[in-house]
Design goal:
The protein is 33% helix and 21% strand. The chain has 511 residues and is of the alpha/beta class. Strand 9 and strand 10 form a beta hairpin.
Length: 511
């Protein structure tokens, strides 16, 4: 990491609050990092933070094992903004008191600003804020005063006039009007941060680091054609040129025309050093008779590594491996503050005896930041704004055994879903939209004849980062067009259904 980069540390007390705060800080063009709440002070101070933010969280500060951070967080001269649970912890740590068993206030409420000060500079005296006052305050620590209140929460915002501030509402939530402005006031007016975190600055910083790290040695990258691996590959290519060798493995589980498009884009247009391997028959043979989802994933992952190793062995001495790991992969794969949802193929899934040194230039970025970097690097918007695609490909969208026949059916149906959503101008509004082959057959009628063929399910999700999501309310006319085209044009399909489940309780993929 650059020694000149300004850093804000966000201490994560669980739940989704910390990630949401991080996104808002990054949107203000200030770099931030999430650390577990119990990170030792020595590790925090190593980062030379310009400011520290304590996130909200689901815990009760009055319980015996309530999460706490190092007390030095509040004793240094570094500006601190404590949100929700973080504010309750700050009050208790510094000698204030909390009420036990109080009802608190959760949800939208009218916030009345009592004292402008720096935190509320330029903010209306009365705004709607999303309250998260689960810890009710009895009295404040010495030196603190009330900055804002609601009818139910007398200590909705507090400050000590120096460097410590606390709010019992969620400034990161869209339902808090002027929440982003309040965060910016803390970052710029109080902490003195500068808005220097940009795609352009990030690219130059990474190019310099990669050049220094790699020198004249060689690196390889498993290029899938997805957004993350594409941006990572191009960024490293900008740094070391043909010393980066990209290996594209066609596993037979890709979308329609995907293999051809990857070769055309990266080898022909961008003149990158690319080796394309057709291993589709090999993967399908390995998957024959396999129905259990996790076993499918493991077979595909292991076979990919075998193919990749075989191709890499032909290239001579290679020192580095490039991966498109992004920040949400790291968070979702589990930290000491949150439980892993599922393992990601590029976080913690590599063998311990890996001979390569890793280059993960996007590891600090959220997906929307990766896209900004891709545009800045000159990748086409069509590629940069491609929706996420699972590592195991269509194998996790064909429920049950994976066969060439099923894949061909799914490919055609999926192509129609994407094409019609693009025609409707909704592609960029959706996080993901795709077809699934659930392995369910049903009775239908086609050409006056009885049929007993496959069902196609459609999944469309809106989300900011894929960690949570809502099922998309696609127009009925669009769904009708998709259904009509699939049942008419895709041989072996007589029924189309729409998945109306959000994440959670479901995951985005079906397997």
């Amino acid at each position: 990491m650059s020694q000149t980069r300004e850093t804000v540390i966000i201490l994560d007390f669980g739940g989704s609050s910390a990630q949401m705060v991080a996104r808002r800080v990054r949107e203000a063009q200030v770099y931030c990092e999430l650390l577990p709440y119990k990170t030792p002070w020595e590790k925090i101070i190593e980062k030379k933070p310009k400011a520290i933010i304590l996130s909200g969280g689901p815990s009760d500060i009055n319980t015996e094992n309530a999460p706490i951070c190092d007390k030095k967080v509040f004793e240094s001269n570094i500006p601190v903004l404590a949100i929700g649970y973080g504010m309750g912890l700050m009050v208790k740590t510094l000698g204030g008191a909390l009420k036990s068993g109080c009802e608190g206030e959760l949800g939208p409420a009218e916030l009345i600003i009592d004292r402008g000060e720096a935190l509320f500079q330029g903010i209306d005296t009365q705004i709607t804020a999303f309250m998260d006052a689960s810890d009710c305050i009895a009295f404040l620590p010495e030196g603190f005063e009330v900055l804002a209140h609601t009818n139910k929460t007398p200590f909705a915002a507090i400050g000590n006039g120096k460097n410590l501030y606390g709010v019992q509402f969620r400034p990161e939530k869209p339902s808090t009007l002027a929440g982003s402005d309040i965060l910016k006031n803390f970052l710029f007016s109080i902490a003195g941060c500068r808005n220097t975190w940009s795609a352009k600055a990030f690219i130059q910083e990474q190019i310099d680091l990669i050049k220094k790290q790699v020198g004249d040695k060689k690196a390889i990258c498993a290029l899938s054609g997805g957004v993350d691996s594409s941006v990572a590959a191009l960024l490293v290519h900008k740094a070391i040129g043909d010393n980066l060798i990209c290996i594209f493995v066609d596993n037979g589980l890709l979308r329609k025309n995907e293999a051809e498009n990857v070769v055309k884009t990266f080898k022909d247009k961008l003149n990158m050093n690319l080796i394309a391997v057709d291993a589709s028959s090999r993967f399908l043979n390995k998957l024959k008779g396999v129905t259990e989802p996790e076993r499918k994933r493991k077979i595909i992952g292991e076979e990919f590594i075998r193919v990749f190793e075989e191709e890499a062995a032909k290239l001579g001495k290679i020192d580095f491996l490039v991966q498109g790991t992004v920040y949400s992969d790291v968070i979702e794969s589990g930290t000491s503050s949150n439980v892993a949802v599922k393992s990601h193929h590029n976080v913690g899934g590599l063998p311990e005896d890996l001979e390569f040194k890793l280059i993960e230039p996007l590891r600090e970025l959220f997906k929307d930041e990766v896209r900004k970097v891709g545009v800045e690097l000159g990748l086409s918007e069509e590629l940069v704004y491609r929706q996420p695609f699972p590592g195991p490909g269509l194998a996790v969208r064909v429920l049950g055994e994976v066969t060439k026949e099923k894949l061909d059916i799914l490919r055609e149906a999926d192509f129609i879903v994407t094409e019609e959503i693009k025609k409707a101008g909704l592609y960029r509004d959706l996080w993901q939209a795709f077809a699934i082959l659930p392995g369910v057959q049903s009775v239908g009628v086609k050409g006056g004849m009885r049929t007993y063929t496959h069902t196609i399910a459609i999944r469309a999700i809106t989300s900011e980062d894929g960690m949570t999501g809502r099922w998309a309310r696609l127009p009925y006319e669009l769904l009708d067009t998709i259904s009509t085209r699939i049942t008419r044009e895709v041989e072996g399909v007589n029924r189309v259904v729409y998945d109306i489940t959000s994440k959670p309780p479901a995951t985005i993929e079906w397997e």
